[in-house]
Structure formats: structure tokens, C-alpha cells
Design brief:
The complex is a heterotrimer of chains A (382), B (131) and C (348). With 382 residues, chain A is of the alpha/beta class. Helices cover 35% and strands 18% of the residues of chain A. Chain A contains 14 helices and eleven strands. Chain C has two domains: 3-169 and 318-340, Peroxisomal Thiolase, Chain A, domain 1; 170-307, 3-Layer(aba) Sandwich (Peroxisomal Thiolase, Chain A, domain 1), CATH 3.40.47. Chain C is 35% helix and 24% strand. Chain C has a nine-stranded mixed sheet with strand order 5-4-6-7-1-8-13-12-11, sandwiched between helices. In chain C, a hairpin with an 8-residue loop joins strand 9 (185-186) and strand 10 (195-196). Chain C is globular and about 55 Å long. The chains are: A alpha/beta (382), B mainly beta (131), C alpha/beta (348). Chains in contact: A-B, B-C. Chain B binds chain C through residues 10, 14-15, 47, 65-66, 68-70, 89, 91-93, 107-111, 115, 120, 122, 125, 130-131, and chain C through 13, 45-49, 51-52, 55-56, 59, 83-84, 92, 95-96, 98, 327-328, 330, 339, 342, 346, 348.
Chain lengths: 382, 131, 348
């Protein structure tokens, strides 16, 4: 296997981007990634996208996006793993370059969520239709059940969950690409509308449009494109039963733990080596569960991570310096790539006010559905 | 829920038919052909008891359009004495009182309606034991 | 003759008080309540209809019968609020109860009489040895038009009876039916609410048929009102059955147990059958029981029944009518009631 590096990145701002279509978003991000690296061609494109079909009635994104990028003819395909689509697109691009099959691959993610589709129902298609959605569950509902199960087993309070949102908004306020570039107070979070007990509106990531793209090539060719490549040293993908009712413990995200184990094993690192992480906080409770499953912190410290500042910028292990899905926004298919770009910038020392000093090893964790799929990547600054 | 898809699920939706692995005893609901625990292929049909216990729950306050009239409603993962788990609404009670450990009966109810004069979709919901 | 080997009832938990409805329409609550002898009525949940009520009552009846449901050879669902205009309620019921597929199924409709009509046919098939067991259900989630007198009474609930020849809980001693064409109450295809002839629903309709059928069965069986421990008539409101009983020579005591309308309301096809279930919940061996239904249009079915020694011990296998009427309840405001009965149109 060849060593693989990221040599260029591009992303749109995340948010309600009324002027941009699904293809506009893709072209903006992909073109930025290509221009950043000075690349004028690619061997193939992976388009991470959860549901162009349901959100805007558009499937078959590979050829459409390649064409609009002025690259009709190139190998291009769409990758879907619900909200983990972007992370899985990165993994497939990584494997393609590592294998020697291609030398230059665009791994992208894109989602257009604000064109009038019934977002609740579209997102629910990432849950078990026959056994969960049929009965009226929603995504906040599923994570609320995870939260309640976790609270039943552990000393976790609504306030602990709320601090995660406060922390991520604080980070997001420093990110010019974030949907919400403002801070929120604990009181605002705790008093926001109850969506699905115990989760409130400000515990939930927003509905967003956006796209993100990274350019991958073999490490040995990276200097052609950039002085500061970032190496992908580990990649792990895992699954768990789709329905919450079919998991041994609804409070435990087994796919996250397994995907992390695989990525750590491949990278020959331990969780303690990670200096900065982007974690899938689609709902604030998820950040707590994922930090524990990733082994970044022990259970008790994970629960109190945002309260103590341990997971904030300047803390022991800064998590979601980008603002996370909560503040940066969550155009579902784009999220995994956007997480990658935050770590890419951190490891290149380009994160500005959000910079984690001396960060050399970073991690992204991107999750599909209520945790039925999870993909973890570990990156090293070169 | 188009009618063929709904019709296909009648055994589990109407009668709580599950499958028990003759090898390891795992009960899968709805029935499967391969045991999710030991991958055994010898499974026998069993009907779940019409009662169980709440494992975890929530109150859905922002509901999908099809359930707007019912919101807020409680939803829970229920475990039956056979060890099978299923997700259902918990009804006929104050949704705020539903929580882990609550004993429930499973009752036959209308679950959803297909739009614009479409079919009516039935199944089971949970009701707290003793009201 | 065949008998009842199992019975069960179901009444939803939601209620609305007569005074709450009266207030909505600017009427004097006390006058309305006194005039109709009604204090409250049951209201179906958004997830309850004739089919779910039939399944709940049918399950209770099977539990009390203690038989394998697959041995039931005929199932008839009597209702004027079948959820589908075309497509049977009974097919869902037989699948849910584990009776399908070797079974004859039909939905009946005869205004408030469809329940006893189903009982009459089920009994006949068992009697004629066509089937070993037959299940008959009377259930409704009836709607009265807003601000109509019917709105105070139209409620939800039902009762189910398994007929068979082995180990009856109740013997059926006699039956009688009386039918004429009388347009006292109707609902045309596509109409949401029924219409009725006001006071015409009384003397020429309800009283004429109830009295004729009851007198007929008394004559046919050679019995007199005093022979019965309990009697139940169809209960469109609190007053009509009391008045019919008085005219026929029955006492208040004989009517008391089955007269559940003041707190249940009129469950249409489920009305007199649920009253009968309430009687069976407390009847003692050898008690003679008379039931006369009434369905607009119009007709009445009468049955003379006698409790057997098996009955009392089977009662506890399922909830009693009293337990459901007096058990956990939720009182609705008129606004909630309008929402539950889908009188509010949403943009979905």
C-alpha cells in the first residue's frame, strides 16, 4: 500500500445558501480544492452525498458533478452512508490512491437541504423504516433515547449535554465558514424549545447546505502540489445494528468504538496520542458518547469534557474546534469532508484563532444514522 | 407506506411474530432468516408476549407530518419477556411519565395513515400496565 | 341451541363531559345533562377505530373462551363506522387475532343494530354446525355532527362474543327479530355526519321496534318481564331505554347493570352488546338475561340468555366493563375532542 496525503482542500460556507444549487455547491468546493493544489486534472471523484434523490430529486451525482467541474469523462461515483457519506468518500479515495489504482483523487461531500424537501422525513430514511420510522420516530428522537439510556446508566445531566453546545458555538464563532458564528449561553441552551426529551433545539445540529472537497495523492508526489501535505495514517469503518432496538445497549455506540480501533491499529497510535479531534456532534449527546467510544477520554471525563473545558480549545483534547456540526452546520453528506478540512488546517497550522498549538496528530469521526455506521480517520502533519 | 410493503409485514405488525434461533436461543423481532448473534439458520417462529418493559424512551415534540396530530407522544424501546426488543409509541398516558423500567402491555392500534385516502396501517403500541 | 363461550368488551380511555360540549354551543349544561341523562361519553384516541376496538374486545372474548383462535370459523364485525368504505374491517381483525385464513368473514352495517345482527348470524352458523366457533363483534367510533343532539351521545367502544356448543358461559334460549323500513336516521355515501328525523327517531322508530321485538320474544319464549334478573335495551341516550323498560313492565333494578350509557355514551353497534357484557361481568349462574338492540332504518334483535355455572370464574380473564368505565380516564376539552375526532383540518 502506498502512503497517501491530502494536498488541497476547499469548502463552501455552511448555512442556508439560497442562491446555490446542489451542483453549484459542489463546483465551488471542488474547484477551490483543485486550485489550492494547482491541479488541472484528477483520476477519479468520489461524491459523498446522503440523499440528493430525496432532497432535490437528483441521483446519479458522479457524472453530473464531474461534468459541471469541466471534467466529463473522469471516473466519478456517489458514495452513501447517510451522514457518514463524506467520511466514507474520503476512505474510498484513500484506498484508491493507496492501492495504486489512481494518483489524484477528489474526495468530496455535498448536500442541499433547504430546497423545500421534508427534511425530517428525509433524514429519517437513515433509520430503520420498517421498525422505527413506521412508528413515528425522528432523528432527534433516536438520539434522545440514546441520551436517556446513557443518563440511566451514568451520572450525566442535561447541563452536561448543554455545555457541549456552548463550547461548540464558542469554537464556531471563530470559524468564518460556520453557519452560526456566534456564541450561546448555557441558559439559552437549557431554555431552548424541547424537541425530544431530553434534547432541546440548541442540542441539535441545524439544517444546512454546503460542500467540501479534498485532493488526495500518493505522499511521494505530494510536494508537486503543496509544501505542507497532511498524511492519512489510519482509516477505520464499522457498522452496528441499524435499529436502536437491535443493539445490545442503546447507550453504547459500538460502531464508533470499532471504527476507532481499526483506525488506531492501522496508524499504530493510541487515543492518548491524538491532539485535536473533529467528532460527529449531530446532537450534543453524541459528542459525549463518541468521545468515550473513541477512547479520547474516560467515561466520567467525557461526560464532563465541555463543563471542565477539557474538550475546548486550550484543553487537554480540543474537540470540534471548527464549531462541530452544531455551530459549523451539518449539510449531511459534506460533513465528513468538512471535518477532514478542519484537521487538515490544524495540522498545517492554518486554523487561525482556532489553532491548537503544535498539533501534529488529529482525528475525524463521522457517523451515519443513529450510529449504525462510523468512519474514523487519523491524520499526521508532515 | 405503500400497501405491498405494509402487507408483507403483517405477521410481525399484527401478531408480533418473531424468530427464535434453535442454536443460541436469541429471539429476533421481526423474524429473520439468519440469527443476528450466532449466524445460525435454524430459526423457529414464536409470538411475543403482549407485554414488556421500557428500556429507554423519549417524548417526540417535533413530529413528522404524519404524526403531527398525535404530538407530543412518548416513544420507547420495549423488551418483551422473550428478550426481543421493539420500538413503539407509548400511549394512553401522560407521555412525561414514561421512562426506563416502566411495565407496559402491547395493544393493537392504528399506527399511521397513507395520505389522500390511502391505506390504514395498523400495528402495536405500548400502554402502561394498570394505567 | 349454541351458547356464548367467551365475551369481551373495550372502551377507550378518553372522555368528554356533557357539560363541556354544552358550554361549547352556549347551551345550559345542566339542562342538557338532565334531558339526555348523560354525564360523559367515551372518545376514541387518534389511533383507535372500529378495527382496533374489535381486536381488543375480540382478544378479551377469546381469552375468556380459552380456545385456539384458529378454530373460529366465522367472524362478523357489526359497525356503522367501519374505517374503510370499501375493504373489510374483519380481514384485519382475523389476521390480528390469529384466526385467519380458514374463516368466513363479513362486515355488517345496520346503524346501531349491526352488533346484534353479527351475533344473530354467528349463533345461527354454530347452531347449524357450519362452524365450530363464530365470533361476533359490535363496535363503533360514531360521529355526531357538531351542535347536533347526537354529539352529546355518539361515543366509542364495543363488545365481542364467541359462540360455540362446548362449555358455554351463557346459554342462548331464544332469539327474535323485528324489522320495517323506517327512515329515522341515515348517512348517505360520502357524507361525514349522519342525519336524523329528530323526534321521529322516538315513537315510530326506537320505541316501536324495541317494544315489538321484546314483546315478540317474551311471547315466543313464554316468559314474562319478572322472570329476568337483567335486561338491556339499546341506549341512544339515558332516557329511551328507561322509558322502553317501563312501558314493557321491567323495573329499574333489572335495567340497572346494563344501563351504562350515562358514563359511556352511545357506542352505536356496541351499545346494547357492551351493556350485555357489563351484565355478564356480574351475572350469577342461572340468571336469565334479555337483550334487545335497535338499529335505525329500522329493526331490533332480541335474545333470551341464561348464565351457566362456568361464567363467574371466566370473568377475571379479561377486564370488566366497569373496570374500563371507572378505570384510568382522560378528560378532554372540546378543542382536544375536535382534534381527536379529526374535525380540524391541517395543512399536511
Amino acid at each position: 500500500m502506498r502512503e497517501v496525503a491530502i494536498v488541497g482542500a476547499g469548502m463552501t460556507r455552511f448555512g442556508e445558501l439560497w442562491q446555490s444549487s446542489l451542483r453549484d455547491l459542489f463546483v465551488e468546493a471542488a474547484d477551490e480544492a483543485l486550485r489550492a493544489a494547482g491541479a488541472d486534472h484528477v483520476d477519479s471523484i468520489f461524491v459523498g452525498n446522503m440523499s440528493g434523490g430525496q432532497f432535490v430529486g437528483q441521483e446519479h451525482l458522479g457524472p453530473l458533478m464531474a461534468d459541471h467541474l469541466g471534467m466529463a469523462g473522469v471516473a466519478a461515483t456517489r458514495v452513501e452512508s447517510a451522514c457518514a457519506s463524506g467520511g466514507v468518500a474520503l476512505r474510498l479515495g484513500f484506498i484508491e490512491v493507496a492501492s495504486g489504482m489512481s494518483d489524484l483523487v477528489l474526495a468530496t461531500g455535498v448536500e442541499k437541504m433547504t430546497d423545500g424537501a421534508d427534511v425530517t422525513n428525509v433524514l429519517a430514511s437513515a433509520a430503520d423504516q420498517e421498525n422505527e420510522v413506521y412508528h413515528g420516530i425522528t432523528f432527534p428522537g433516536l438520539y434522545a433515547m440514546i441520551a436517556r439510556a446513557y443518563m440511566t446508566e451514568n451520572d450525566l445531566t442535561e447541563e452536561d449535554i448543554s455545555w457541549v453546545a456552548v463550547k461548540n458555538h464558542k469554537h464556531g464563532a471563530m470559524n468564518p465558514k460556520a453557519q452560526f458564528q456566534h456564541e450561546v449561553t448555557l441558559e439559552q441552551v437549557m431554555n431552548s424549545t424541547m424537541v425530544s426529551d431530553p434534547l432541546r433545539l440548541l442540542h441539535c445540529s441545524p439544517v444546512s447546505d454546503g460542500a467540501a472537497a479534498v485532493l488526495l495523492c500518493p505522499l511521494e508526489q505530494a510536494r508537486k502540489y503543496t509544501d505542507r501535505p497532511v498524511r492519512i495514517v489510519g482509516s477505520g469503518l464499522a457498522t452496528a445494528p441499524m435499529a436502536l432496538a437491535h443493539r445490545p445497549d442503546p447507550a453504547r455506540l459500538d460502531a464508533v468504538a470499532r471504527s476507532a480501533e481499526r483506525a488506531y491499529g492501522m496508524a499504530h497510535v493510541t487515543p492518548g496520542d491524538i491532539q485535536v479531534a473533529e467528532v460527529h456532534d449531530c446532537f450534543s449527546i453524541a459528542e459525549i458518547c463518541c468521545i468515550e467510544a473513541l477512547g479520547l477520554l474516560e467515561r466520567e471525563a467525557a461526560v464532563k469534557g465541555a463543563v471542565t473545558g477539557c474538550t475546548a480549545l486550550g484543553g487537554r483534547i480540543p474537540v470540534n474546534t471548527s464549531g462541530g456540526l452544531k455551530a459549523k452546520g451539518h449539510p449531511v453528506g459534506a460533513t465528513g469532508i468538512a471535518q477532514t478540512i478542519e484537521i487538515f488546517e490544524q495540522l498545517r497550522g492554518e486554523a487561525g484563532d482556532r489553532q491548537v498549538e503544535g498539533a501534529r496528530l488529529g482525528l475525524t469521526q463521522n457517523m451515519g444514522g443513529s450510529g449504525a455506521s462510523s468512519v474514523v480517520h487519523i491524520f499526521e502533519g508532515v | 407506506m405503500p400497501s405491498p410493503r405494509y402487507w408483507r409485514e403483517i405477521p410481525n405488525r399484527f401478531r408480533l411474530e418473531a424468530a427464535r434461533c434453535t442454536g443460541c436461543g436469541t429471539v429476533a423481532f421481526p423474524a429473520r432468516t439468519i440469527c443476528p448473534k450466532c449466524r445460525g439458520r435454524e430459526l423457529e417462529s414464536v409470538r411475543l408476549s403482549r407485554h414488556g418493559k421500557v428500556v429507554t424512551s423519549t417524548v417526540v415534540r417535533v413530529a413528522p407530518d404524519e404524526f403531527m396530530m398525535e404530538a407530543p407522544y412518548a416513544m420507547a424501546v420495549i423488551e418483551t419477556p422473550e428478550g426481543a426488543r421493539l420500538m413503539t409509541q407509548v400511549v394512553d398516558c401522560d407521555p412525561d411519565t414514561v421512562g426506563p423500567g416502566m411495565e407496559v402491555d402491547l395493544v393493537f392500534r392504528l399506527i399511521r395513515k397513507e395520505d389522500h385516502g390511502g391505506i390504514l396501517c395498523y400495528g402495536h403500541k405500548a400502554v402502561p400496565v394498570g394505567g | 341451541m349454541a351458547g356464548i363461550v367467551g365475551y369481551g368488551a373495550y372502551i377507550p380511555r378518553n372522555r368528554i363531559k356533557t357539560e363541556e360540549i354544552a358550554r361549547q354551543w352556549g347551551k345550559d349544561p345542566a339542562t342538557m345533562s338532565r334531558g339526555l341523562l348523560l354525564t360523559e361519553k367515551s372518545v376514541p384516541g387518534l389511533d383507535e377505530d372500529t378495527i382496533t376496538i374489535s381486536v381488543a374486545a375480540g382478544q378479551a372474548a377469546i381469552d375468556r373462551a380459552g380456545i385456539d383462535p384458529a378454530r373460529i370459523g366465522a367472524v362478523y364485525i357489526g359497525s356503522e363506522s367501519h374505517p374503510y368504505a370499501v375493504k373489510p374491517s374483519g380481514t384485519v381483525v382475523v389476521e390480528a387475532l390469529g384466526i385467519a385464513p380458514d374463516v368466513h368473514v363479513a362486515d355488517f352495517e345496520f346503524a346501531c343494530k349491526a352488533g346484534t345482527e353479527a351475533m344473530f348470524v354467528a349463533l345461527g352458523l354454530v347452531d347449524g354446525d357450519r362452524v365450530e366457533y363464530a365470533l361476533a363483534v359490535g363496535a363503533d367510533t360514531s360521529q355526531g355532527a357538531p351542535n347536533d343532539a347526537l354529539e352529546y351521545s355518539a361515543s366509542a367502544g364495543g363488545a365481542a362474543f364467541v359462540f360455540g356448543k362446548t362449555d358455554p358461559l351463557v346459554d342462548v334460549l331464544e332469539t327474535y327479530s323485528y324489522t320495517t323500513d323506517t327512515p329515522d336516521f341515515w348517512r348517505r355515501e360520502g357524507e361525514f355526519y349522519p342525519r336524523h328525523g329528530g323526534r321521529f327517531t322516538g315513537e315510530p322508530a326506537y320505541f316501536k321496534h324495541v317494544i315489538a321485538a321484546t314483546s315478540g320474544i317474551l311471547e315466543k319464549s313464554g316468559m314474562a318481564p319478572k322472570d329476568f334478573r337483567h335486561v338491556v335495551f339499546h341506549m341512544p341516550n339515558g332516557k329511551f331505554p328507561q322509558s322502553a323498560g317501563k312501558q314493557l313492565g321491567f323495573t329499574k333494578e333489572q335495567l340497572e347493570v346494563g344501563w351504562i350509557v350515562p358514563t359511556m355514551g352511545n357506542t352505536y353497534s356496541g351499545s346494547s352488546p357492551t351493556g350485555l357484557a357489563a351484565i355478564l361481568d356480574i351475572a350469577e349462574p342461572d340468571d336469565l338475561i334479555l337483550i334487545t338492540s335497535f338499529g335505525s332504518g329500522a329493526g331490533s334483535d332480541s335474545f333470551v340468555l341464561r348464565a351457566t355455572s362456568l361464567l363467574p370464574e371466566r370473568v377475571k380473564r379479561a377486564p370488566t366493563v366497569k373496570e374500563m368505565l371507572d378505570g384510568p380516564r382522560r378528560y378532554l376539552t372540546y378543542g382536544e375532542y375536535a382534534k381527536y375526532r379529526e374535525k380540524i383540518i391541517l395543512n399536511t
